[in-house]
Amino acid sequence: MVLTINYADLQNIKQKAIADKITDNDEIYGFIQCYKDTLNYMYKNNLNPDKSRTDYEYELMNFANDLLKNTNKSYREIEREYKYKTTKDYYISPNDIRLIL
């Protein structure tokens, strides 16, 4: 998934990811993280002024739940397995959008 600054494009990417019915846990975790990073970027730069932080968090939760329907593991189990396999070379702010499951 690529970072986009257009909210409509992000919705199209989201729908395609859900329609693809991804079953690989690594890919599911990657899509959720990329989606979260994109929403954080949009929130921090106020690219969609009609959306609040809570709106973004709710949207992230729905996206994660849609992807997790294709696996028998919970998000926490997948996160434990793949969290340290991804590179995070950026600062995490306490104001970042969080996945609430």
Describe this structure in words.
The protein is mainly alpha-helical and 101 residues long. It contains four helices and no strands. The model has no long low-confidence stretch (mean pLDDT 83).
Features:
mainly alpha; 0% strand; 4 helices; 101 residues; 56% helix
Structural class by sheet pairing and helices: mainly alpha
Percent range for helical residues? Answer: 55-70%
| First and last CA, distance | 22 Å
Oligomer, anyone?
single chain
Q: Could you tell me the strand content as a percent range?
A: under 5%
Query: Nearest-angstrom radius of gyration?
Result: 13 Å
Mean pLDDT: 83
Helices, by number, come to 4
Low-confidence stretches: none
Largest sheet features: none
How would you describe the shape? globular
